[in-house]
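Each record in this resource describes a single protein on a pair of labelled lines. With that in mind, the following record should read easily:

===
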Amino acid sequence: MSSLPKYQEIYRRFRQAIDQGQLRPGERVPSVRSLAQELKVARGTVETAYQLLVSEGFFLARGQAGTVVAEALPQRSIKSLPVEPEPVAPASAPRLLQLGLPALDSFPRKLWARLVTRQVRRVDVNSLAMGDVRGARSLRVAIAQYLALYRGVECSPEQVFVCAGYSACLALVCDALQMAGQPCWFEDPGYLHARQLLLHLGVQLVPVPVDHDGLDVEEGVRRAPGARLAIVTPAHQSPLGVALGTARRHRLLDWAQAHGGWVVEDDYDSEFRYKGQPLAALKSQDTADRVIYSGSFSKMLFPGLRLGYLVVPRALLPAFEASAGVLQNRSAELLQATTADFLDQGHFTRHLKKMRQLYTARRGFLVEALASHCGALLQVDEQSGGINLLARLRVDVCDQAVAAAAARAGLGIQAVSGWSIEPGGQQGLLMGFTNLATRQQAVQAALVLREVIDGAL
């Protein structure tokens, strides 16, 4: 603390706040009584500091209306105390070709803000409480209705658990099924962040190869027939983009029923399919109720929403309710209620339709740019859906070396081999296209990537 008298400390704090722009002209300052209580000093101490600031023209006393910063401030300042420079925050704008992001520039922000405002105006005592551990009922009802209509998943709102993103969904699954130390089939290559989280939670991952027909179920049975859990992305495998074939879907469900295993279906971006209709959810074929369906609004709407959900088999409801009560992996009630309105009023399905059209165009921008400027270096895999592209290297260079150099050049691409568990995994470059607003941006990204690959040879 300073050796100055208390009233001078208060005086200096206000002067520095005014000089540094933290207090602006016309802004109201705390009352003498409230500030004295806050600082635990006598009212007379604060009154003396305020009187000094009024006399010098920095404050304007308005009687019962309170005290405010004067509109016309004197042109003089006091010697500032040393102030540590604030660290520069990292840029929030997506990098070129960054993975896993929806088109942030095309999200209906004004509509969303209007829906949020309406929810704020509806706030009552009940809405301020913690709420149901499964999530806001209005959102769980909206999710159940959407899934029945668009994904063929029949469930009741009581089976829906809303969590703070996909990571929280996985954490809830692992806790409810007591997965620490238990074997779990995991696609190889597979979703990197999920793998990192599962290992952190102590799950024993069993890598199961993925080929052109998706997860090799027979190989999973050979490696760990008694696995307690299998985590799959059947509609659009992450990261290879292939779909789980019909025969393998049936074999996976048969395995789960015969061995008492459970299957987590991560249906993360199935709505974004550009050829034909979206594939049926694995859960819609689950007659034995062994599939835990997982969905997320983060890739449909915006990642800052941090809103995911599970559809839990009825036999597991008591265990999931108990774990949800312990983990408390909730999303904010305000965001849940707003998302429920977004679904109920038809905005969600309209937004998805608009994004399919937009992503078709933006995907085309990138495919054309890569063919024109990187055709000798890369071959783009044929994919019928998703929000990422996979490009295979035509030249003898390590994909991780390319990805590291690309990151230094400002690109957000990732190496496929980094998503593999077993050594000697597939090589390739993963890149997003959703935030390429123009053909010129795609060309710019392709030119940078070409220079990066040439430099790595």
Observations:
- Residues 370 and 446 are 6 Å apart (CA to CA).
- The domain at 110-349 is CATH 3.40.640.10 (Aspartate Aminotransferase; domain 2).
- The mean pLDDT is 90.
